[in-house]
């Protein structure tokens, strides 16, 4: 059997507040690496505190890719991410450096490492027609329509997830086939690197919940609400008819802060809702990560010696 001669890469996956960012930066500094963000919130400019975006100081000395590449009102698909990330990985490898893929967005990781099934391209006119229908009927009604077309997709997609409802209906209207049917086709792609997959996560769910609570409080103390006020003042967002339908504003924490500033509830409830939403995100991330059977799980705070042994052994290959 021919030896696998592909270059090496690290996939540092994990739920929110698990310590991925600090570990990725440390390894990038020590192992001549560059960080490729695999996070659907970090692509947006202006989502800093609430997205736990690495600061300018933290990024100093370590090249980071796919951070601050879109405005918060601009779309960005998993397919676009996969293409951009593959280009970043190729460039990193060409410089003789180690790609360190870091984040917690499962769809992005899947698109990058395994490829996406073939799918019809976006159609601006069909998308606009769906948006008009939604403005008249509401996204809950559009979700009911989706359930009649593609019950499996409707079970996967939350009735308030406008972006995914729209895409599923768009695929149906463009092709006459459901998005579930399209996804059954196998993607034709092999990732260009051998990958060490690590899930950074504490063994105890209670520990993770405590970290989430502490981090959300720290974000509030750091001026998270002022950050959201600045976003609301952006002309493109202030004029948007449904800002809460935008993926950037639906990001965990931002949605709750936006609704609070709309007057929907008081500051104390914002904290409760923000922490609850972040814990729910972590739960979904952990569910996805359980399917990564070839990944090694370790807590960066407690299992550092084990992690060091893992990456040292991998890099000696």
Secondary-structure blueprint:
Layout: E1 8-13, H1 20-30, E2 33-38, H2 56-59, E3 64-65, H3 78-94, E4 98-103, H4 106-114, H5 124-137, H6 139-149, H7 151-156, H8 162-175, H9 179-183, E5 194-200, H10 205-221, H11 224-233, H12 235-238, H13 247-250, H14 254-261, H15 267-289, E6 296-298, H16 304-315
Parallel strand pairs: 1-4, 1-5, 2-3, 2-4, 5-6
Subunit structure: Monomer.
Organism: Cognatilysobacter lacus
EC number: 2.5.1.75
Beta-strand share of residues: 5-15%
Gross geometry: globular
Spans of at least 5 consecutive residues with low confidence: none
Classification by helices and strands: alpha/beta
Instruction: Identify the CATH class of the largest domain.
Output: Alpha Beta
Q: Level of helix content? A: 40-55%
Radius of gyration (CA) equals 20 Å
Give the H and E element order. EHEHEHEHHHHHHEHHHHHHEH
**Total number of helical segments?**
16
**CATH architecture verdict of the largest domain:** 3-Layer(aba) Sandwich
Largest sheet: 6 strands, parallel
Mean pLDDT comes to 94
CATH topology of the largest domain: Rossmann fold
Q: How many angstroms does the end-to-end distance come to?
A: 16 Å
- Number of β-strand runs: 6
Give the tally of structural domains: 2
Strand order of the largest sheet: 3-2-4-1-5-6
* CATH level-4 homologous superfamily of the largest domain: P-loop containing nucleotide triphosphate hydrolases
EC number: 2.5.1.75
Subunit structure: Monomer.
GO molecular function: ATP binding; tRNA dimethylallyltransferase activity
Organism: Cognatilysobacter lacus
């Amino acid at each position: 059997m021919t030896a696998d001669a592909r270059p090496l890469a690290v996939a540092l996956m994990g739920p929110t507040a698990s310590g991925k960012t600090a570990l990725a930066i440390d390894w990038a500094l020590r192992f001549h690496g560059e960080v490729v963000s695999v996070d659907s919130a970090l692509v947006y400019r202006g989502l800093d505190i609430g997205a736990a975006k690495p600061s300018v100081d933290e990024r100093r000395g370590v090249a980071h890719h796919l951070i601050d590449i879109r405005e918060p009102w601009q779309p960005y698909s998993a397919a676009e991410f996969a293409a951009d990330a593959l280009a970043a990985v190729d460039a990193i490898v060409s410089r003789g450096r180690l790609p360190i893929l870091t984040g917690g967005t499962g769809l992005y990781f899947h698109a990058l490492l395994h490829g996406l099934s073939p799918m019809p391209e976006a159609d601006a006119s069909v998308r606009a027609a769906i948006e008009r229908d939604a403005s008249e009927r509401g996204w809950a009604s559009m979700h009911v329509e989706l359930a009649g077309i593609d019950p499996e997709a409707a079970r996967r997609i939350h009735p308030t997830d406008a972006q995914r409802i729209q895409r599923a209906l768009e695929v149906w209207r463009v092709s006459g086939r459901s998005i579930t049917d399209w996804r059954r086709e196998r993607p034709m792609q092999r990732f260009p690197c051998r990958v060490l997959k690590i899930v950074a996560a504490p063994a105890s769910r209670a520990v993770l919940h405590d970290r989430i609570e502490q981090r959300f409080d720290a974000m509030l103390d750091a001026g998270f609400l002022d950050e959201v006020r600045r976003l609301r003042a952006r002309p493109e967002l202030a004029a948007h008819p449904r800002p809460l339908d935008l993926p950037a504003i639906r990001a965990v924490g931002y949605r709750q802060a936006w609704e609070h500033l709309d007057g929907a509830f008081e500051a104390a409830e914002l904290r409760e809702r923000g922490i609850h939403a972040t814990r729910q995100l972590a739960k979904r991330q952990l569910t996805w990560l359980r399917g990564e059977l070839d990944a090694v799980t370790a807590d960066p705070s407690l299992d550092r010696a084990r992690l060091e042994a893992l990456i040292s052994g991998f890099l000696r290959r």
